[in-house]
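step=predict obj=DUF397 domain-containing protein n=64
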Amino acid sequence: MSEIKWQEPYCAGGGNACLQIGHTIDGTPILRETSRPEDLLVTTREGLRSLVEAAKRGELDHLL
């Protein structure tokens, strides 16, 4: 996979559960847990946007 530029991780509760979002040079979004950096979730901009918007509306609250 091409070079990935990672954002600072988002950590909860003392830093044990950290998610990191990055993107490739062509803008492809990628997510990973910092405890398992080799496991990457590759998505599309539209897919990531849809997920973020659903979270903002509370549609994912049942998963917490």
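step=describe
The longest strand covers residues 17-24.
step=end
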